[in-house]
Design brief:
single chain; mainly alpha; 4 helices; about 0% strand; flat; transmembrane helix; transmembrane; membrane
Length: about 120
């Protein structure tokens, strides 16, 4: 691995650790966990969202077409939305949150897939 690639890999790793810390802090602020399991779940949410961002970056960069990029964005964005949904609301169905989140994921996927390849 060349020196430039190592620096890029270290920088990406630092950004992902920072993103996991920020996502965990937002989850911590929103839920204020009291017991050990809730604290572990909050930290796992942050790490899971950071992994989702990492997958989104890697798979989005490897797509060759706009339709492929849109598909990757919808699938990974939907998985991240589902992770947030289950963490915040559990397995109950709230149609307002669900359809609002699906709309946000679709709009963001359309915006990010419209850029040039």
């Amino acid at each position: 691995m060349s020196h430039a690639k190592k620096i890029h890999a270290y920088g990406l790793f630092v950004l992902l650790v920072l993103a996991a810390a920020v996502f965990s802090w937002i989850g911590w602020f929103a839920t204020n966990p009291q017991d050990l399991m809730a604290k572990a779940a909050t930290i796992s949410l942050g790490v899971g969202l950071a992994v989702g961002v990492w997958l989104l970056i890697g798979l989005d960069a490897s797509c060759q077409t706009r339709k492929g990029r849109f598909g990757v964005d919808v699938v990974i964005g939907g998985a991240m939305m589902l992770l947030i949904y289950i963490f915040m609301l559990g397995l109950t169905f709230d149609w307002l949150f669900t359809f609002g989140a699906i709309g946000i994921v679709l709009v963001l996927a359309l915006l990010f897939s419209a850029r040039r390849i």
